[in-house]
DNA sequence: CTAAGGTAGGAAAAGGTTTTCCGATCGCAG
DNA sequence: CTGCGATCGGAAAACCTTTTCCTACCTTAG
């Protein structure tokens, strides 16, 4: 239903159709200035008839704001980035803004190239996300004052804003739940301890035990895989400490643990209770029994990132490290 | 290292610094027109000194091309969308273009809103992706001639360009491999047959069997889950047809099958060989034994989408349905 | 030495929108 | 009936870049 001729319909076409000037059309569209109701309606009718859509580029050129945020992922759009993106995109699109995707894959060269592209595209802000092994150098903005948020990723500059799940709190909640349901001997099987998250979850585990006056069980580190979950759990069960519950560093380890326990004749949760971490749907549901797990609420983390980004773009600077709560999702394993 | 004052540095600042006109700066930057080498260098030096970055918005306003493609996902950035995005983004960013992410979640209302936003942002093309249960109505472009590609998703308009993995060929390859390794009684445990992919994979399975003169085994449909993989496999094994191999509709079903077989005392692959579909890393690796699986090469599918999108934007129209080959990744289960 | 041709670089328009500023018209009051 | 004020709407600049066209200068050849 475009007019069918000579390319895109512009504000000039609308002005001509409505018999007014382009300034008037602009005012009618944006509800600015003072216009007679009749004029406004006349313009809006023409807008509708011509199916006019204001060119955002032209507007951006004028306002200096493009309504676009760049998302630089170092996770190759992996499992953790997805829900974050989803939350972020949801909030931003509600505010009429969009998200530009870039995949840097931990390659500093690529990241720099993407950054150049984003800056040239006049983005209003940058969100950096990653696999979160450790703190990363701050993005080099070359002195351009642009809002940046690190989410599920940690800048080494304390003046930056960083958003993370509360790993420690999540582990604390999980272990407290185990204690409340009567468990007294709680071990921890988890990932490599060069992950900050691993150290924090360990801290939460210890804190909950200490609060209840229970002795800390053993902690075993391995890779984030089911195979290691099985192996470490088997190792744990033949040791002197006979756990009646295991806090697992992630769902894959937990699932490996569940398999190992079942195959060695132990029942979950009767003999040993199990809590995972990530609440990854396919894992927790496929686990036998379905796995109780800590959800990092990544979607909400992304949404919060979006809200704060909007605020920053509107002029409220923010900094510091903020941790958002995790929640425990109960199923059958604990 | 921006000049520190009065906002972003523009082409005017560069012109002033180099002592030339803005037109000359533009020519130096784009290698157009005729300029004395000395002048060109003088300008480039000023560009560097001021850290000037041309405003893409202004350029786009002039050329009518924004260098941006919109990606509308109905998969909530799910597991299948990710690698496609990755391939797409890789190719486009090599061509200096960017990807705008939109999550429509199969909500026609949201999709329309996103489409409006994208059109207003003057995108040069649209990529639509989804969970691919069935053909979907073509995106309503309201007569605006804009390149559209449906990938892992199927438009109901044959004049649109649709890119899909060759499900039939993938299944054919998998079954042929089973036959070549001596299997003669090959069953098929798969997902709900309202998926086009399910019907196509079934076709490939039958074709490979027919080519080898083998009788078709039973086909069992269920949900795409491990639990159904286990249940259907158990059901299959107590039936009259004693399969020595199973083609599974996806990796989750295959993993369920592997568990069911192992737990009923059968060995994989010695007694029953297993092939999955999707080659989903966490599944195939966690499977015991590691799963041989058909890879849909989604990353390459995304890359091809990017290449064709670039061609379309440059003026070469394309249409029809194109299926890209799958490949069989051998591990221990077959 | 003069004229012609070629080349370097500048001026200005175009691209679509917002916004400011100003003029004109209408109505009402004196 | 005249004048003032308020309100409506138009003209034009600004945002930043590209590109076309043109001028001026230099070189070379006659």
Structure, described:
2 copies of one chain form a homodimer. The first copy, chain A, is α/β, with parallel strands linked by helices. Chain A has 3 domains: about 45 residues, lambda repressor-like DNA-binding domains (434 Repressor (Amino-terminal Domain)); about 130 residues, Response regulator (Rossmann fold, 3-Layer(aba) Sandwich), CATH 3.40.50.2300; about 130 residues, Rossmann fold, CATH 3.40.50. In chain A, about 45% of the residues lie in helices and about 15% in strands. In chain A, the strands form 2 sheets. Chain A has a 6-stranded parallel beta sheet, with helices on both faces. Chain A has a 6-stranded mixed beta sheet with strand order 7-6-8-9-10-12, with helices on both faces. The longest helix of chain A has 16 residues. At the A-B interface, α4, α5, β2, α6 and α10 of A face α4, α5, β2, α6 and α10 of B. β2 of chain A pairs antiparallel with β2 of chain B. The structure holds a DNA duplex (30 and 30 nucleotides).
Offer a quick outline of the entry.
Two copies of one chain form a homodimer. The first copy, chain A, is an alpha/beta fold and 334 residues long.
**Helicity range of chain A:** 40-55%
Give the percentage of residues in beta strands of chain A: 15-25%
Query: How many H/I helical runs of chain A?
Result: 12
Domains counted in the coordinates of chain A: how many?
3
GO molecular function, one term (chains A, B): DNA-binding transcription factor activity
Keywords (chains A, B): DNA-binding, Transcription, Transcription regulation
Protein name (chains A, B): LacI family transcriptional regulator
Organism (chains A, B): Neogemmobacter tilapiae
